[in-house]
Specification:
3 domains, 457 residues, five-stranded antiparallel beta sheet, alpha+beta, six-stranded antiparallel beta sheet
């Protein structure tokens, strides 16, 4: 399965395990509905609503924001058969007191489930507290319809035409099951999202489906009335009860999973880190050069797009120049530079190669390059600045700002750098002079001064 399919998968069926022994049919799906508290505004009061049936315990579907709901039941929850209960809701509360970790109950008549509710002991003990409740009175359908027909026949003509008995069929709902089509705004919102996804070349998300509700929010007063009506319909048949106990082991496991969940930010950062590693791996397979001269030669090879040099990967196509280039200024010997950017993730370094036109030879050639190299120690901070002298004569002329080189100008320029506390620059110019054939006895004394300057620094 592709990663994209995993991300948009919306089907996740919980294992029922021990919960199957309840035999409550589709009413078991109230375990996959959630309670939603909606504020009434400034009154500091709230209404409790029930969410549609999802595909996991506690409501919702895979991919919902906010992590997995923390619920007190699971496939290993213990089911306790408490037998016959008497005294209406009082008998149910008595059963809860004997099992204070009960989180749900089911009632049966003639061994057939008639209702299933999610109520904790504290909720059930109150007078106006609510839980999720489902019922199925299909075994009493004939009796309910017969009683309604008899009452309708005995009712006044006005009641049959305008009152409670207008309908020929009873208004009592046999089952709590209900379906609801998606709202118009939900459809329009998904259509808008899919239009944006199409523009990005992404697959569309499924359109909203109709919402299914197996249970409703019932307060304890309504539950009391329901049990009283059930006792009447049962007409002396015993009402038995099973309790679902809290799944402590499952709750601990879910809590651990919840705290170990991967957030959206962590998924994004993980994908970005993976991209960086893949990019670095691809760069490591590119050809490598060991000096700046070979780097410049390789940039002329159109078949090579990326090359390794100085611990980084570089583009072989220049991406910037030093300002606007004027052909006349270039022909008059004005230096200019072109830059090659790095392809390393998170790095913004460049290699700057400086060119100058030699009017005597009629050749445009590089005379200097500058760049930063990574330190060999991966834990070391900072970078090492490098200068490559490609043409010593043109390099020295550019540094000294002269058109012709001589002993006095070279030595004076180097000594000035030493005096101004730039030993690295002085050494760079001295080495360039020697590389160009300008080697004077005074260089020995200057090198000693540079060494002392390095120690002082």
């Amino acid at each position: 399965m592709l990663v994209s399919e995993l991300l948009y998968e919306e089907t996740l069926f919980e294992k029922l395990g021990n919960l199957r022994s309840l035999n409550v049919g589709s009413m078991i799906n109230i375990l996959k509905q959630s309670q939603i508290r909606r504020s009434r505004g400034r009154s500091r009061q709230y209404d409790v609503e029930v969410g549609p049936t999802g595909t996991r315990f506690g409501g919702g579907t895979r991919g919902d924001y906010g992590g997995k709901p923390q619920v007190a039941w699971g496939d290993t929850s213990k089911i306790v058969d408490v037998g016959v209960i008497k005294g209406g809701i009082g008998g149910l509360r008595k059963a809860y007191k004997a099992h204070d970790d009960a989180v749900a109950f089911a009632l049966y008549v003639n061994d057939k489930a008639v209702c299933f509710g999610i109520f904790g002991q504290e909720t059930l003990g109150g007078s106006s507290r609510a839980g999720i409740f489902a019922w199925d009175l299909s075994q009493f359908k004939d009796k309910i319809e017969k009683e309604y027909s008899e009452k309708r026949a005995a009712a006044s003509e006005w009641d049959r035409k305008h009152g409670y008995f207008q309908s020929e069929k009873p208004t009592t709902k046999i089952s709590s099951y209900n379906e609801k089509e998606p709202e118009g705004y939900e459809i329009r919102s998904r259509e808008y999202d899919n239009e944006r996804r199409a523009e990005r070349g992404e697959p569309p998300l499924p359109m909203p489906k109709k919402k299914i509700y197996h249970g409703k929010i019932y307060d304890t007063a309504s539950l009391k009335s329901f049990i009283e009506e059930l006792i009447r319909l049962a007409d002396g048949s015993p009402i038995t009860c099973k309790l679902v106990l809290g799944n402590q082991e499952g709750a601990a496991k879910r809590s651990k999973r919840y705290h170990n969940r991967i957030s959206g930010d962590e998924i994004y950062s993980g994908l970005e880190a993976l991209k960086v590693r893949l990019t670095k791996y691809k760069i490591s397979k590119k050809p490598t050069v060991n000096n700046i001269e070979d780097f410049i030669k390789t940039t002329l090879n159109r078949d090579v797009k990326v090359i390794q040099f100085g611990g980084r990967g570089w583009k072989t196509t220049p991406e910037a120049t030093s300002g606007l280039l004027n052909p006349l200024t270039i022909l008059n010997g004005q230096p200019f530079s072109i830059s090659y950017g790095t392809v390393d993730p998170g790095a913004y370094d460049s290699i700057h190669v400086y060119y100058k036109f030699n009017k005597d030879t009629g050749i445009l050639q590089p005379f200097k390059a500058t760049w930063d190299e990574k330190k060999k120690d991966p834990n070391a901070y900072g970078k090492i600045s490098k200068v490559g002298v490609l043409n010593p004569d043109e390099y020295l002329k550019d540094e000294l700002k002269v058109n012709k080189l001589d002993k006095d100008s070279i030595i004076k320029a180097i000594l000035t750098k030493v005096k101004d506390h730039y030993p690295a620059k002085a050494r760079e110019m001295l080495n360039a002079a020697r590389k160009g054939g300008y080697d004077y006895p005074e260089f020995v004394a200057i090198e000693k001064s540079i060494g002392k300057e390095d120690e002082e620094d």
